[in-house]
């Protein structure tokens, strides 16, 4: 049963207190449901971030947007909005920072004299193909720069909008410069609408895998996050579906609710699934040493306890059954030019 008062199409049901604010004021009669999404242009000095986390495989990431319209209550990026003076709750979904100068900053980064190319993760924090991308096309322009310089990029997204840019992805794939990771935590459409309300449907994501694979663009799927009591019964179903669609590999994570993600998620699940909210929260605690979050390197990825172990074993079975012999290619850096390849200008 779902609470009838829940704000549909949204993960956060309210703003939560910013950890860095000494004083907080929020009107009691604030009509969050009628709030419109606002877009603010910001002017960062750099767009490429060096990833220093010990348990993450990428060297660099970049994010053309800050904040995300997709509305996933469990999103680990929510607390980053607090550094801008906003809330990790509704503000994260409704106040989007837009980095229009990202393509120019990326080009300057590539032109650094001592730069040694490494694949860059596009969407290390917030989704590069969130709905705002239809209007601003910053991700498309970034891909054009990567194609011009023959620089490898890994794309991570929840949105089938990635298919819009096939005209760039196909020539990039021909030079082993691009891969796409689609996030598919569930193929239960009723659950998907609640878990990630403004992402592409599960059906459209699976179709995107088919189209990308048909065009020889390597596809990985992130089955993430696994939330016990919500989607933890789906891994084998999902793995079969994505394997049949043509995915070459997959990854997965267990849900963790650090900092202000916790109150956002707790409020969401109490409204979206009031009949099983406490059960789900207790199952998460069983994987996180009695807490809902975990910041310890490596431990935060694996979790602990019987529930976590059962999930890991299920994915092991699925890997052997559906992905045996499949291998995800490593992107190439050997064609990087260091200067713009004028022969590729006809793609502009």
A few lines on this structure:
The chain is of the alpha/beta class and about 350 residues long.
Topology:
Elements: E1 38-41, E2 48-50, E3 60-62, E4 65-66, H1 90-94, E5 95-98, H2 102-110, E6 120-122, H3 132-136, H4 138-149, E7 153-157, H5 166-174, E8 178-183, H6 189-195, H7 202-214, E9 219-226, H8 235-245, E10 249-254, H9 261-272, H10 277-287, H11 299-302, H12 305-322
Parallel strand pairs: 1-5, 3-6, 6-7, 7-8, 8-9, 9-10
Antiparallel strand pairs: 2-3, 4-5
Q: Could you explain how this protein is built, in words?
A:
- With 348 residues, this protein is of the alpha/beta class.
- 33% of the residues lie in helices and 13% in strands.
- The protein is built from twelve helices and ten strands.
- It has helices at residues 90-94, 102-110, 132-136, 138-149, 166-174, 189-195, 202-214, 235-245, 261-272, 277-287, 299-302, 305-322, and strands at 38-41, 48-50, 60-62, 65-66, 95-98, 120-122, 153-157, 178-183, 219-226, 249-254.
- The strands form two sheets. It has a seven-stranded mixed sheet with strand order 2-3-6-7-8-9-10. It has a three-stranded mixed sheet with strand order 1-5-4.
- Strand 7 (153-157), helix 5 and strand 8 (178-183) form a beta-alpha-beta unit.
- Helix 4 runs parallel beside helix 5.
Tell me the major beta sheet: 7 strands, mixed
Q: Please tally the helical runs, counting DSSP H or I stretches of 4 or more residues.
A: 12
Strand order of the largest sheet: 2-3-6-7-8-9-10
What is the number of beta strands? 10
What would you call the structural class? alpha/beta
Strand content: 5-15%
> Over the alpha carbons, how many angstroms does the gyration radius reach?
20 Å
Provide the succession of SSEs.
Answer: EEEEHEHEHHEHEHHEHEHHHH
Low-pLDDT ranges: 344-348
Distance between the terminal alpha carbons, to the nearest Å?
50 Å
Which shape, going by the Cα principal axes? globular
What is the residue-averaged pLDDT?
90
Helix amount: 25-40%
């Amino acid at each position: 049963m779902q609470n009838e008062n829940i704000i549909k199409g949204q993960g956060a049901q309210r703003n939560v207190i910013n950890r860095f604010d000494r004083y907080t004021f929020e009107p009691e009669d604030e009509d969050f449901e009628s709030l419109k999404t606002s877009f603010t242009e910001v002017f960062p000095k750099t767009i490429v971030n060096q990833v220093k986390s010990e348990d993450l495989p990428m060297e660099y990431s970049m994010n053309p947007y800050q904040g995300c319209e997709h509305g996933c209550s469990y999103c680990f990026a929510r607390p980053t909005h607090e550094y801008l003076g906003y809330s990790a709750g509704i503000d994260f979904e409704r106040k989007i920072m837009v980095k229009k100068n990202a393509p120019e900053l990326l080009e300057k980064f590539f032109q650094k004299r001592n730069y040694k190319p490494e694949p860059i993760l596009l969407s290390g924090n917030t989704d590069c193909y969130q709905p705002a991308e239809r209007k601003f096309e910053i991700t498309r322009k970034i891909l054009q720069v990567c194609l011009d310089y023959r620089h490898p990029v890994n794309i991570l997204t929840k949105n089938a909008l990635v298919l819009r840019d096939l005209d760039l992805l196909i020539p990039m794939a021909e030079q082993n410069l691009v891969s796409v990771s689609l996030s598919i935590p569930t193929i239960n459409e009723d659950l998907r609408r609640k878990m990630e309300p403004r992402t592409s449907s599960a059906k459209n994501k699976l179709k995107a895998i088919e189209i990308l694979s048909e065009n020889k663009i390597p596809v990985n799927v992130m089955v993430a996050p696994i939330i016990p009591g919500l989607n933890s019964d789906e891994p084998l179903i999902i793995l079969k579906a994505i394997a049949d669609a043509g995915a070459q590999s997959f990854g997965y994570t267990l849900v963790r609710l650090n900092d202000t993600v916790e109150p956002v998620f707790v409020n969401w699940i109490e409204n979206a699934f009031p009949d099983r909210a406490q059960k789900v929260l207790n199952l998460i605690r069983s994987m996180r040493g009695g807490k809902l979050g975990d910041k310890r390197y490596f431990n935060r990825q694996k979790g602990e306890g019987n529930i976590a172990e059962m999930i890991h074993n299920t994915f092991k079975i699925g890997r052997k059954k559906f992905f045996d012999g499949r291998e995800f290619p490593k992107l190439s850096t050997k064609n990087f030019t260091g200067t713009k390849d004028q022969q590729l200008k006809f793609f502009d």
